Automatic annotation (TrEMBL):
Keywords of the record: Glycosidase, Hydrolase
One Gene Ontology MF term: carbohydrate binding
The protein's name: Alpha-glucosidase
Originating species: Francisella hispaniensis FSC454
Domain Glycoside hydrolase family 31 N-terminal: 29-215
PANTHER family listed in its UniProt record: ALPHA-GLUCOSIDASE, PUTATIVE (AFU_ORTHOLOGUE AFUA_1G06560)-RELATED
CDD domains registered for this protein in UniProt: GH31_glycosidase_Aec37, GH31_N
Residues covered by the Glycosyl hydrolase family 31 C-terminal domain: 600-684
Homology family: Belongs to the glycosyl hydrolase 31 family.
Glycoside hydrolase family 31 TIM barrel domain ranges (all copies): 263-590
A Pfam family per the record: Gal_mutarotas_2
InterPro entries with a match to the protein in the record: Gal_mutarotase_sf_dom (IPR011013), GH (IPR017853), Glyco_hydro_31_C (IPR048395), Glyco_hydro_31_N_dom (IPR025887), Glyco_hydro_31_TIM (IPR000322), Glyco_hydro_b (IPR013780)
Gene3D superfamilies: Glycosidases, glycosyl hydrolase (family 31), Golgi alpha-mannosidase II
Amino acid sequence: MLDICKFKLKDTKQDHLLFELEEKQLFARIFVLEENIFRVLLTKTLKPSLDKTWSITKNDIPFEGIDRLDTSSFSCPNFEAYGNDDFAVIATSKLKCEIKLNGFIISWYKRDSDEWVKISQDLDTQAYNLDFWSDRGVYHAIKKDPKSMFFGLGEKTGSLNRDKKRYEMKSIDPMGYDAESSDPLYKHIPFFISHNHLYKTSFGIFYDNLSDSIFNFGKEIDNYHGPYISYEAKAGDLDYYFILGDKIAEVTETFSTITGKTILPPYWSLYYSGSTMTYTDLPDAQSQMDNFIKDCQKYDIQCGSFQLSSGYTSIGDKRYVFNWNHSKFPDIQSFTKKYSDNGIKLCANIKPCLLQDHPKLDEVASFNGFIYNKYYTKPELVQFWDELGYYLDFTNPKTISWWQDNVTKQLLEKGIESTWNDNNEYEVYNGEAICYGFGKEIKIKHIKPIQSLLMTKASFEAQKHFAPQKRPYLITRSGCAGLQRYAQTWTGDNYTEWKTLKYNLEMAKGLSLSGIYNFGHDIGGFSGPAPEPELLIRWIQHGIFYPRFTIHSWNDDKSVNTPWMYPEALQTIQKAFDLRNELIPYIYQLCYQSHTDAKAILKPTFYDFETDIRTFEENQDFMLGNLLIANILEKNQRVREIYLPKGSNWYDYYAGRVYQGGKIISINVDIQSIPIFVREGSVIVTNNCKAGFNNFNQELVYKIYPSLTDISTQHQIYLDDGETMGYLNGENAVLNIQVINKDGKLNIDWQYQGHEYFKVAHPQIINMNKELKI
């Protein structure tokens, strides 16, 4: 490393140290934010190139973002700092960084008892682009430990471990993507976790940079540098957060916390949601939608919502956001009232682009509400779904007001309950196009994912203003870290085939590890052929465990994926729906825990059993809270092998039989099988009422799965009305349960405090006296 790369300490502040590379006019800051969180910021001037952040906040954030140098969301503890002309050391009680000032090479250490153990180090030969490579943009390289595994980056395809792979972080619309190999996809979450099982070390790195980027986890190799992982971004600054955790779970939950708590959804959003492109594409769309209600009633299917596809806005073959097609929907109020009367909420699809012949184009052009091409002095023309068009600029307050006015008048006032924010990837390939930037122009290359986020926030605020006592429920396809503050999401327009079922699960685990917890998939597959009966059954049996339980489709043959699609499969599918209804109270508990404590809802088995190395092997199992779900994801499968993690005994959910952890069991399965195992010591709250059309009755049962060893456990079950914002003002209830198992005797004490929202049955004890099956 050349001496011209040597940084010098410039200043010491309460929350950071400032260094300067005088020869290149580069500045480096090390922030100490928490005992286990440091931040590294490299800039070409004293001010960051993008002076706002929209991702880092523990609460909500204004539309215009917050100062990127603001550290008020953190405790900023005292730290130790010392060094000389060659190195600097900064340390808290848990985390330390040593900096070689020549090249600003950082080594990271965690405290283990009385020793500091190195857990990561920048690449010695070239860790950063110190303004020498004009064509590389932002660059960061880290030495690669061959025993490390890498997770995160959101909804990426393929296996969960990112090792030896390369990924592009660029939001596009990859309809019909290959769930094993397609890249990039919809979201921008530049966060990964490194885990080394040998050294019992986990840490996460979040790059707060919104430009298109590339992650290399060892797929790229170079003999001159040795093994490395690297990050490159096309624009902006290198601004990353280093998060130390004792476990992977701690890293994930810390990241989710610092980017904002997951919104608590309304209870109704957990019921089955119908959807299809086909109904609203047809000329008699309102009649088709009426028939959906009739079919739900005919087959006694419980449905809580319907996601209304964009065909309702069509003129000819093209879609025009906020434009109702009155030929397809001759009586909008009658349409929405019929759905409301039958207990089905409507979530309408909206898109952030106006086609070049949109009826409302001049309205937005009058206040310069589009992303702008400065060279041609006119709005930036882009390729959209149906036609060329112009993206709305949500960094313009007038655009936000226009959008919210249309959400209110065209949707909410007409009886639509919520918004489905779709096609919001902002595929603007001219990175120099200009955004208003709340009065300070910003090039789109710096903030594409922020447009997606602000679109969703604008819809969120419109819904809050229209119905201030109701919890807003929204869906968004794209966004960045922080989208969980406003909306539920899903993995986009998947393709109908068996391997999608398998790899969508891996994508789900990746989202969870990246701090996004409220999501689901298009059950049955969105694009391609109609699913065969067995595939539809297995997809529904799998989908019932996700917060978003939506069957959605745009099949090549114009058929519609519905629970009653195949008469021969209906009975089996209804049983899966019954299980969903039974577990909704438990899923709601998990949603509440994700909201209050940043706990993941659906997670890989290693999330809770990190000390068991076998849980890191690729598998098709996952945890839903304390339930281990071992769905059937292979065609014609009749035997299922399941590894039950070490560290717990496991109850068969149906039979109550107990299995020892740390072993593989083999069970026979048929078309109705949905294997579930319960971690000992759990309390699972379920609904004892039968599901049915427009029947949302609840009678809560608390199933206690005692530990087989002498132990006392405390459990708290949370309840509220499931719909209003009253929970923020203490309008809720809790059921406190204490389970004491001593000398083979079980003592249960339970107390209900607060309003009785649902009928509550006495706790049900599962299999106290049955022997352990080895």
